[in-house]
Amino acid sequence: xxxxxxxxxxxxxxxxxxxxxxxxxxxxxxxxxxxxxxxxxxxxxxxxxxxxxxxxxxxxxxxxxxxxxxxxxxxxxxxxxxxxxxxxxxxxxxxxxxxxxxxxxxxxxxxxxxxxxxxxxxxxxxxxxxxxxxxxxxxxxxxxxxxxxxxxxxxxxxxxxxxxxxxxxxxxxxxxxxxxxxxxxxxxxxxxxxxxx
Length: 197
Hints:
By secondary structure, the protein is of the alpha/beta class.
């Protein structure tokens, strides 16, 4: 099977505004430029995948159906821009969860790479040719642990992150960008990806 390169995106603070435990579709607000950036990635042949921690499930603030409803709404919003997400992966766990079913030190919660590894297996992705874009160090750690290159965006938590303190080599951190659209431009990601025969 031919493996495809992917762009893994954190959700809150990268694609949509971080409202702290977003529980409802009506709370979804796109980060300016993010939908157009995703559409550009789609046109260039990248597989675009969302990788997001959702410990609000473990904390009893919302249920998995609420997360699914948010993702359905987000997909509909993006479609209006000609953009699409090929897969949504989220971790509902938290080690000190209020909901016992989700009280788990799992392999999927970022900074661990479990969600990226599962997406790669499910979707036939080439992790070494892929990128992880996030607004937190834990996003970059997950990407680096999975073998991707990483980008920090200055939206969401990235607006106040001290990137000068980051170990760029350990995090495979190649670019610090003002937002997702800037990341796409700085990394040349809007150029059609080379398809391996």
